[in-house]
Amino acid sequence: MHAVGVDIGGTKIAVGVVGDDGKILAKTRRPTHPEDPASIDAAIADAVAELSSEYEFHAIGLAAAGFVSSDRERVLFAPNIAWRDYPLAQKVAEAIGRDDLCVVVENDANAAGWAEFAYGPARDASSMIMLTIGTGLGGAIISDGALVRGSAGFAAEIGHMRVVPEGHPCGCGHRGCWEQYASGSALVREAKRAASERSVRAAGLIRCAGGDPSTIKGPHVTKAAADGDELGIELLTELGQWIGTGAASLSAVLDPEMYVVGGGVVAAGDMILGPARDAYVSNLSARGHRPIAPIVAASMGNDAGIVGAAALARIDTNANG
Ligand SMILES: [Zn+2]
């Protein structure tokens, strides 16, 4: 049975009809205003009406970048959209106005993780941890075949696991969070710091950024490293090591079968994942006496939110008969 997945971003929504096999059959987009939740509800309803002219479905999953209640009905807080204890599932259902639809809300990182688990590299695993490494570090935990949402719905905020006491300040108000070391922002911070010294070894990286150290971005580091630049390789290695070190701590708690790494940094491939694997192994507890969880690249790309939200909504519909 088809289901619909909605990826709700800060300034646009992407809505897709997803088949049982995780393939997107049709997709449409609408611009939205993050400060006006009602406009987002209306945009979703409009997109759903367009898709329902051609496809039959009874389940809609909404992937939302925010803290989602464990009953999957409300967004309690979102950093980039004006949702404050907002009954998103109910509002969207009302805007669509069909009584044969099941609408559920999922955290966007959880939805993306579920897509990789159901249809991506973890499809044969029973447990996995997804690490989404973009500006920050998001995650999803799937244990014994089930998404771990936590008691309030706030589980898997793994980027805020503390790895360095009194370390770099974090947007969450604390210091030393994992995402301050294992994220695209951390990579850029360290690259700019190294380049600001204007040493001979920073010359290649500065050249990749067009001559101005203050404009360095993640892809510049990846490009420099791919060209064999020593500093670029060192920066990616360091990022990878932080990924592996944190993953080893997660394995001590959750013992996943594998890690799936998504987000922008995946473009650097084994230049990051290689050091991540090495650091993971050397920091693992009971090292040598437990399986080594593979650390692999995600495969669902930007469609993961749509596909995962649709798949999770479909499960819910089936469970309710
Ligand atoms: Zn934090």
Question: What topology, given as strand order, has the largest sheet?
Answer: 3-2-1-4-8
What's the CATH class of the largest domain, please? Alpha Beta
CATH architecture classification of the largest domain: 2-Layer Sandwich
CATH superfamily grouping of the largest domain: ATPase, nucleotide binding domain
Mind summarizing the main beta sheet? 5 strands, mixed
* Shape type: globular
Please count the beta strands (DSSP E, at least 2 residues each).
13
Total individual domains? 2
| Uncertain ranges | none
The distinct bound ligands, ions and cofactors come out as:
zinc ion
Number of helices: 9
Mean pLDDT comes to 94
**CATH third-level topology of the largest domain:** Nucleotidyltransferase, domain 5
Alpha-carbon distance between the two ends: 13 Å
Quickly give the structural class.
alpha/beta
Helix share, percent = 25-40%
Radius of gyration: 20 Å
